[in-house]
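subagent[fold] <- orchestrator: predict structure for attached chain, return tokens only, no commentary.
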Amino acid sequence: MSDNYYQEGMHITFRDDFYTHNLTKTPIVRTNTSSPAQNWNDVLSYVKINLGVPINLLELSDDDLITNLRQHVMGLFSQYAPHKAWAYISGADIFYGSSLGSPQYMAKIPVPAGTYIVDVLEAYPTKEVSIVDMYGGALINAQAAMDLVISNSYIDAVRSLQTRNTWEFLPPDTMIFDKETLACVVVYNITHTTLETVRPDLYHKCFKPLCLGYSKLWIAAMRSKFEGLATPFGQLNLNFNELKSEGQTLIDNTMSILETIPPDILIEVS
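subagent[fold] -> orchestrator:
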């Protein structure tokens, strides 16, 4: 590539080599304008700075705090704002109930080991024989716009006569069907295993305050074992009641926001 490649391509002539130098030799440095990453270090920093660290020392280590938040707060948060996943149920996952009174058509949702399914959002089972195929796919040849409308209306009317294969989710990972099915696509909700899957708005507005609220409750429970600490400088009041009240208020306010999250499927009652 010649030094004046860009000049030749744009059919212009520069008076000096300033622009040529910047186009051919100077690398472009891109500025990272993204928000801070969603990780446990960010949550830990948020919790500790709001608890007065480093002036106030905490009774929990960083590892213990993250472990408790991951185990208790992450699961609670996922009940209101879970992570979606998809699974395909094939013939190998389908089994039939053999005991008296048990459902006949069942299937295991193929999920990785250790996956906790919150609930199943939707299931799309296959149909063995379509009633549309039995009566014919179309009434007339669609040669005009009106013919196409009539044809589609006919198909919808015939399909309405067919019984839909309904389903029910049985924890931890079993689907129950009313009719026999060959395969099924399942949309299900699971708990978050990483903070990167949490919605950014809920991460800052709900998850981090929820972590702070529970951290205050846990620390207040530890400090409640002592009325105060005797030091050479006098008695120190731990103020655990105030810390407990602040934590509970923060949790209640955050839960009120989570409870207003609309459901995935809206049911209209007329």
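orchestrator: received. Logging for downstream: The CA atoms of residues 133 and 158 lie 10 Å apart. The chain has eight helices and nine strands.
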